[in-house]
Amino acid sequence: MKKRKAGDRYRPIVTIKKMKNGKATVIEASGNTYILRHPDQFQGGKHEAI
């Protein structure tokens, strides 16, 4: 694998795991999962905004 440093640009392979309303809400890139989360979205049991 090529060594990378800060500021380098490259094209990773991204896999869409979940779609909602025509937008990718969960993607996987370089073995990591990323989730689209809105600022007003609630998570947890106490209904506090994140």
Structural account:
The protein is an all-beta fold and 50 residues long. It has one domain (12-50). 0% of the residues lie in helices and 36% in strands. The chain has no helices and 3 strands. The protein has a 3-stranded antiparallel β-sheet with strand order 1-2-3, with no helix packed on it. Strand 2 (23-29) and strand 3 (32-35) form a beta hairpin. The chain is elongated. The mean pLDDT is 86.
Q: Keywords for this structure?
A:
50 residues; mainly beta; 3-stranded antiparallel β-sheet; 3 strands; 0% helix; 36% strand
Poorly predicted ranges (pLDDT <50, ≥5 residues)?
Answer: none
What value does the average pLDDT take? 86
Give the amount of beta strand, in percent.
35-45%
How are strands sequenced across the largest beta sheet? Answer: 1-2-3
User: What pattern of helices and strands is seen along the backbone?
Assistant: EEE
Shape: elongated
List the helices and strands and how they pair.
Blueprint: E1 14-20, E2 23-29, E3 32-35
Short summary:
By secondary structure, this protein is mainly beta. Helices cover 0% and strands 36% of the residues. Strand 2 and strand 3 form a beta hairpin.
